[in-house]
Each structure stands twice: as C-alpha cells, then as structure tokens.
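User: Here's a protein and a ligand (PRP). What would the complex look like?
Assistant: Let me lay out the input and then the predicted complex.
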Amino acid sequence: MSPNPSSLYDDVADVLISQEAIQQRVAELGQQITLDFAGSEVLMIAVLKGALLFLADLVRNVNLPVAMDFLAVSSYGAGTSSSGVVRILKDLDEPIEGRNVVIVEDIVDSGRTLDYLLRMLRQRHPATLHVCTLLDKRERREINVPIDYVGFEVPDEFVVGYGLDFAEYYRQLPFIGVLKPEIYQ
Ligand code: PRP
C-alpha cells in the first residue's frame, strides 16, 4: 500500500470530524483538565505514535504546570484490527510515584492497550491516574476500561488523521476521516 502521491486528501472518502470540531473539542478538554486539576501539577503521558498530535494541541489548552512523557506500545501491527497483543516498545523516562498522571490516547478500541497500561502504571503508585482519549470506539470494547475525558465517540469504521494512521501514513491529516475502500483493500 502507498498513499496517493499527488494528494493525501484524494484518498479520503469522508470527513467524520472536521478540523474545526477537533480544535473546539480539544480546547474544551484542556479547559476541563485545567479546572479539575486546579492548584496541582499534571504529568501528561502520550501513547505513541497516535496521540502525538492530540497531546501537542491539548497541552496548549491546559493552564497548569504540565510535564510530558511518552510511552510507545505495539498493539495493531500494520493491519486494521487489534491483535490483542500489547508490547512496550519505549517506557517512560521518569518515575510517576506521587504524581498526577493523565494518559493521553488517540483512540480506545478493544480497550486492551489501555487496560494493560493502567495496570502497569498503577503498580508505580501515581497519586492519581486518569485517562483522556480523543476518540472512543465504544462498540468495539472487549475490556471495560475507565475513561475520564472523551473527545468524540466514533462508529466502528477504520479512521485516519489527526495522529491515526493506516500503515503509518495519513497521521498528518488535520481532520478524522475514512479512507476510500480501494486504499486498504
Ligand atoms: C492504537 C491506539 C491505542 C490502541 C487502541 O495504537 O493509539 O494505543 O491502538 O486499541 P485497543 O483499544 O484495541 O487496544 P496503534 O497500535 O495503532 O499504534 P499507533 O498509535 O502508533 O498508531
């Protein structure tokens, strides 16, 4: 598979969530986190690579002392459905004991990745542990996971853009969209 070299936008069948809607919602989430953690410091942990764009926009809407760290995990491979296998590719740089931690995800699908990460991070004794995801594909959930902040609920379609990829492409699209079937078939 390779994306259309003339324009990535030509590969998109439908825009599910516009750039404007994302920016508006991210601002609201940032304001909510600012209120909820008033007077505290927050460590925001992005799960690479999908959450990179979301974290970058989210922190610009959080008016608190914020530190950032990154986890890289593998759960999907190059296909379009979850294998259920979670592997830590890059661990955190810093201890989280006693800190207010917010895990930042681009999407929660089966919930397997988040379930694994929550169990792993709880063992490190953070003061608080919350979850913020841009997208929630709730109808695909296999494991019940607590999510504190949700940007949008999305249907069971393969979505790309704003950090989400197909075979590592399309992450830079500023909206959430669905690819034309011929791209991934
Ligand atoms: C996606 C997403 C979550 C996970 C959600 O990551 O960022 O980490 O899958 O799926 P689950 O709820 O079924 O576990 P992906 O493995 O696609 O990696 P990426 O962020 O690098 O694209």
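Summary: The mean pLDDT is 93.
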